[in-house]
Amino acid sequence: MLFIFFFAILGGKFSYTEAWGAVGHSIIVRLAQDQLTNATADWLQSLVPWHFRGNLSAMASWADSIIHENSNPTGFINWEWSKKLHYINVPDGSCIYQVDRDCENNTCIDGAIRNYTERLEKNLDLAQQQEALYFLVHFVGDIHQPFHTALKSDYGGNTIKVRFMNGRVTSLHSLWDSGIIQYRIQTDFQSNVNKYYEYIHQLMLREPILNSDDDIQEWIRENLKLVCNQLYFDGNNQTMDVTKTHNLNETYYMRSRPIIEKHLALAGRRLGTILNRIAQARARQFLLSTSLSPVVYILIAVGSVIIMLIVTLVVFLCIRNRKKR
Ligand SMILES: *[C@@H]1O[C@H](CO)[C@@H](O)[C@H](O)[C@H]1NC(C)=O
Ligand SMILES: *[C@@H]1O[C@H](CO)[C@@H](O)[C@H](O)[C@H]1NC(C)=O
Ligand SMILES: *[C@@H]1O[C@H](CO)[C@@H](O)[C@H](O)[C@H]1NC(C)=O
Ligand SMILES: *[C@@H]1O[C@H](CO)[C@@H](O)[C@H](O)[C@H]1NC(C)=O
Ligand SMILES: *[C@@H]1O[C@H](CO)[C@@H](O)[C@H](O)[C@H]1NC(C)=O
Ligand SMILES: *[C@@H]1O[C@H](CO)[C@@H](O)[C@H](O)[C@H]1NC(C)=O
Predict the structure, then answer these.
(1) Contacts of 97 (CB under 8 A, 6+ apart)
(2) Mind listing the pLDDT tens digit of every residue in the chain (325 residues)?
(3) Has keyword Endoplasmic reticulum (predicted)?
(4) Whose CA is nearest to atom 13 of ligand 3?
(5) Which ligand is closest to the CA of 39, given by its number?
(6) Which of 156, 206, 299, 319 has the most CB atoms around its CB within 10 Å?
(7) How far is the CA of 220 from the centre of ligand 3 (A)?
(8) CA distance 61 to 177
(9) Does residue 174 sit in the same domain as residue 307?
(10) Residues 189 and 63 reside in one and the same domain
(11) Measured between alpha carbons, how far is 93 from 237 in angstroms, rounded to an integer?
(12) What's the number of domains the chain is made of?
C-alpha cells in the first residue's frame, strides 16, 4: 500500500545523483525493453504504473529515489534497509569477492539480484512484484558500474575527489555514474539522450554473446579486475587516493569511456535476457492455473467425488466382510 501511495505523490519525478545517473539507468532499461518478447512485455505492462504506459525505463531509478530525503521526504527512512543492496565492498588488497564475507545474509547487490529474480518468478501480490521488478532493473544496472563492486576503504570511489576536464570537484564514483556519460552526450551527441541511446543500442547488438552473461559472480570478477588494475590510475598512471584532488582529462576519459559504454550495453542485454527468462518461468509455472477452462475444473470436481464414493464403498465392503467372518 505504502508503495502505491508513494507513486501517487512522486508522480515519477526523480532527483538524485547516485548510481549510474538517471540517464545511464534509463538507457539500460530501454535496451532491455527492446529485447522483450511480446509475452514478457505484456506481463511487465501490468507492473508499470499506468501513467507510464508500459514504459519500464521510467522506473529505472525508483530504487534510488526511495532512499533519498529530497525525492522521498516522508518515507525514505522506511527504505533505509535497501541501501546496502546497491553495492559490494571488498577489503582493499583482496580484489576478490567472497560471498560469505562480502555479502552477509545476502545483503548486497549480488544477493539482491538473486532474491528479486526469485521473487518475480513467484506469484506474489502486485505491490511485491512491482517492488521486485523495480529493484531488479536497477540493481542489474548498478552492478555494471564497476565502482558498485569496489573497495571498502573509499566506499567504492566515493571519497576520492576528482576534477574532470577542469569542471567542479566530484567523486571518482560519481564521475563513473554520470560525469563521463554527461560529457560524452554533450560533446558528441548534441546533448540528445535519444541519439546516445541509439548509439549504445548499436553497440549492444554488436557485443558477442558470452557464457558469462548469466553469471553474476563473473560480472563482479570482471569489475574487480578493472577496479584493481586500471580505474584508480590517473592520466600519469599515478594511483589516486583520498589525500588530494586529482585532475583528470582527455587521457582518463579516453581510457574509461569505452568501458562505460560497453558496460551499459552489456547491462541492457543481460537485463533483457533475465526478464524474458523470468516471464518464461512464470508461464511454465502458472500454465496450469491460467489455461484450464471452468469445464475442466467441473470435470475434476465431479471426478474427485466419484473416486471418493468408490473408496468409501470399498472400505465399507471390507469392513462388512470382516464382521461376517
Ligand atoms: C508482437 O507485438 C507486435 C505489436 O503489438 C506485433 O506487431 C507482432 O506481430 C507481435 N509478435 C508476435 C510474435 O506475436
Ligand atoms: C520511456 O521513458 C524514457 C525516460 O525514462 C524516455 O527516454 C523514453 O523515450 C520513453 N520511451 C517511450 C517509448 O515512451
Ligand atoms: C545476519 O543475520 C544474523 C542472524 O539473523 C544477524 O545476527 C546479523 O546481524 C546479520 N548480519 C548482517 C550484516 O545483516
Ligand atoms: C528479499 O526481498 C524481500 C522483499 O524486499 C526482503 O524482505 C528480504 O529480506 C530479501 N531477502 C534477502 C535474502 O535479501
Ligand atoms: C592531461 O593530463 C595528463 C596527465 O596529467 C597530461 O600529461 C596531459 O598533458 C593532459 N592533457 C591535456 C590535453 O591537458
Ligand atoms: C600509462 O599506462 C599505459 C598502459 O600501461 C601506457 O600505455 C601509458 O603510456 C602510460 N602513461 C604514462 C603517462 O606513463
Answers:
(1) 88, 90, 103, 110, 149, 217, 220, 221, 224
(2) 334 334 333 333 333 344 578 999 999 999 999 999 999 999 999 999 999 999 999 999 999 999 999 999 999 999 999 999 999 999 998 899 999 999 999 999 999 999 999 999 999 999 999 999 999 999 999 999 999 999 999 999 999 999 999 999 999 999 999 999 999 999 999 999 999 999 999 999 999 888 788 899 999 999 999 999 999 999 999 999 999 999 999 999 999 999 999 999 999 999 999 999 999 999 998 875 555 566 777 888 888 999 999 999 988 888 888 776 6
(3) no
(4) 104
(5) 1
(6) 156
(7) 23
(8) 13
(9) no
(10) yes
(11) 18
(12) 2
Q: Ligand nearest 233 Cα, by number?
A: 6
For 242, the domain range is 2-287
Do 212 and 309 share a domain, yes or no? Answer: no
Identify whether the C-beta of residue 264 lies closer than 8 Å to the C-beta of residue 28.
yes
Q: Domain check: are 62 and 128 in the same one?
A: yes
Measured by CA distance, the residue closest to atom 10 of ligand 4 is: 115
For residue 163, list its beta bridge partners: 169, 247
| Cβ of 236 below 6 Å from ligand 5 | yes
Is 59 within 8 Å of 134 (Cβ atoms)? yes
CB-ligand 6 contact for 237 (6 Å cutoff): yes
The pTM score is: 0.85
Ligand nearest to the CA of 163: 5
| Domain identity same for 207 and 111 | yes
